[in-house]
Amino acid sequence: MTEEQKQAIAQIPPKMENRCRALLKQIICFSPENGSISFMLAAWVKSMNPQRANWLSGFNDSQVVEHAFTEESFEANVRDYTKMIHGYAKQTKLQEAENTLLAMKNRGFICDQVTLTALIHMYSKAWQS
C-alpha cells in the first residue's frame, strides 16, 4: 500500500458503516490488473445487498455513482440524475451528461425544471467556450 493510499484511507469518515468503509478501501487500493471496478461493485452488491443510504455514504467516485444508478437497491430519482448531469456539466462532459439524461428518460423519469436548468446552463457554458 502506498503512502498516498494510506492517507486517503485515513480520511474516510469514522462514522461510515463498516461495509461501506471496506468498499472505499478497496476502491482506494484498486488496481486495473485485478479486474474492473464494475466487477468489484457487482460483487459488493451481491454480498452486502446495500440500501440507498449505503450508496450515498460518501461515494464520490464517478464509476461508483454510475454503477449505483444501474442498481435497483440505489432507488435513483430525478434529483439524483439531475445532480449527476450537473456534475458532468461542471466538468464540461457533455456526452456523459447527455447519456445520463437518456438513461434517466429510459428509466421513466421526466425532466423537471431543475434538470432543464442544468442542461441549459451546460449548453450555454459549452457554447461560450
TrEMBL record:
Keyword hit for Transit peptide: no
InterPro entries cross-referenced by the UniProt entry: PPR_rpt, TPR-like_helical_dom_sf
Coiled-coil residue spans: none
Keyword annotations of the record: Repeat
Pfam families with a match to the protein in the record: PPR_2
PPR repeats: 77-111
Name the record gives this protein: Pentatricopeptide repeat-containing protein
Species name: Forsythia ovata
